[in-house]
Amino acid sequence: MKTFWGTPNRIEEPLLGKVTKKAFAFGNQKTFFVSEELLWGIGHGAYVTSGRNIPRILRGKPSLTEISSESLMRLHEGDIIKIFPNGRISIVWEKGSRHNVIFVTDKCDCRCIMCPQPPDSNSPLSLWKENKEILLMLDDKTSSICFSGGEPTLEMEQLVDLLALCKIRFPNADLAILTNGVALSDFDKVKQLVEQRNEFLIFCVSLDGDTDDIHDEIVGVEGAFSQTMRGLYNLARFRCPVELRFVIMRQNFERLPYYAEFVYRNLPFVSHIAFMGLEFTGEAARNLESIKIDPVEYADSLREAVFHLHRREMNVSIYNVPKCLLPRDVWRFARDSISPWKKGYLDICATCEEKKNCCGVFETSTYTSQNLKPIIKGCRDGK
Amino acid sequence: MLATKMRTRKAFLRDFTGLHMVVLSGHCNCRCDYCQASSSDPPKERSSQNMNPEIADAVLDMIFKSPSPVIKIEFQGGEPLLNWNVLTRIVHNGKKLNKKAKKRLGFVVCTNMALLDEDKINFLKTEGADISTSLDGPKDLHDLHRKMRDGSSSYDKFIENLSLARSLMGTGAVSPLLTITKDHLKRIPEVIDEYIELGFKGIFLRALNPYGFAQENVGQLGYSVEEFLEAYKQGFCYILKKNLNGEYFSENFATLLLSRILTPFATGFMDLQSPAGAGICGAIYDYDGNVYPTDEGRMLARMGDKQFLLGNVMENSFEEIFGGNKLRSITSKSCVETLPGCSSCVYQTYCGSDPVRNYVETKDWVGFRPNSEFCKKNKAILDFLFGFLFENDDKVIDVFWSWITHRSLEEIWP
Question: For the complex shown, is ipTM > 0.90?
């Protein structure tokens, strides 16, 4: 989540609002007026500016001043932001982006060794009310909404409620739930969710191995594999679209070709399989030494797995692995998957002819492959 | 997981009988040497072997009693176009009944196409019926055993009406079947070229079955399993080479077996299933209302042996015919998982049984594997295909997957 800082005035509690650059509002406390210089404004919930001064008539209102102009430029009309008493601004929803996420909860029932966002046990607050507010504030033309966490299915009541709201407000939007699938082993819960879905809901389920020992070791919970499998079959019973996500690391990369066959034999109903490179942050940064792997090392196994599935008419993608680390013939499966605010390139990428079609690297990662090379004339290193 | 896989593999059992073959006429305008249905001359008087409307209505009622959500009605003969009025009656009444039943209803006409004309084709097009026909190769080979009763060339008529049907219904509406006789064995590549030239996308290389005239003329038409296998392999390799050179054309028996080997799915092929598809996946209604579990059961009856007769639509209920002891027994005696010789066979998962064929070979539905030609043939072809899988040549495997998924190589690797 993008965050900036400013100088807070009269912000007593975190406030949620929609960015507008129009000075007039008619008493809608849900809009925040954002402007380089704050000269005047009427009717907004809060005021956000690069300047130092606040006109006298607005001094009684919550405001943030002295935000760098650069940061301010990144706030667009229609974005949803949250401002905090300590002067922080977070962009909660970026209008027009495909990478927006509704954080259903911080809680999680897995302890994945590569979790980029470890659960925060000190946040007992429910996000239910806020998430509902966000969904109500969103433009009704919003085309994609993703529910994540934590593990969103741990707050089943909230999730069902949010889905029901989406079904009414965004009947044609692409909805996704990112889940470890463990809680979906409960048929009745899946039924509850499915009854409230719009027809475009997809479940993106993490499955990081084709055997219980590998998957369970990675997610840190014994028995998780069999529960997730049960969850997947429950989704299949309701004909729910399912995407499988496999994060490639030291522990599981050798399983890639076997995983592909396992999926085809046991889960042929899934609509998409994503093989994902690691983001070395959070737990993944802490466990760097045990999970770290250079994509060059798994490129052949990954290629085999991708081809295996593609031949079988399964949709398959590679996320988060720069093209220069992949064999040329699997480039067509590599997607530009890293959210813009996390995405970066190295200096050497400047001369790469594939840069514009490449996912880049995670700026949040503490480890980056040593084998990145610009693609020149269709080859690494021009060779 | 194991249960799910088993269910997926045996999914063909879920819906019960979906394919309903209706013999509209025992007569035919052709007199092919290998006719397995022993068809007769077109009728001269009213006392004919054409299905009458009263029986047709009873057949249709019976068909709609099947619990299957997908119903395919296949018009057979003889030559079904000789009984055009009843054909249209069944199509119209079927659609009427389906307004209430709401099944996925489809029609296929198995015809030599000689009697097709623009009106008939337009009717089939409007009603969404497909055409299944016969093509035995280039002209001389086709005409050799496929004879019109009036002595004219069946090939010329076929070509003429093929283009007429395609121009009105689209290229995909007509699919042909090949019958391999002794005379074809050395000329399979020629036959394949003929299929490709006419724009067909695949061929089913299947051996002659020992029924009807084919049985009577076995000396003139027949061949040993070994001879067939040699021709099969030659044809298969010829087709494979075409594919490796970039031309999509499938061998459909291999495609069926490869699907069973390489995918988790069920494949619908009545003659090679476990339990056999006889009666429970498909059934055939003869022109006199007699019901048989397979076409071969009906052919056998025509040869005088009513062993497989399940009942008659005018006399028996759906429950008597499809729930009766005879069909139960045929089904329970056709599970390769329990059949002697099959239960311990390495190819069991890919194979199936054919109780009618077993009966013809041994006078017993269970059959006797050690000298079964059916078994010998299937094992040899599976051996042959596993040879390619063992070699695991990337290009060949790509071709196999292109057949299984009905995509050209270009679609897989643009």
Answer: no
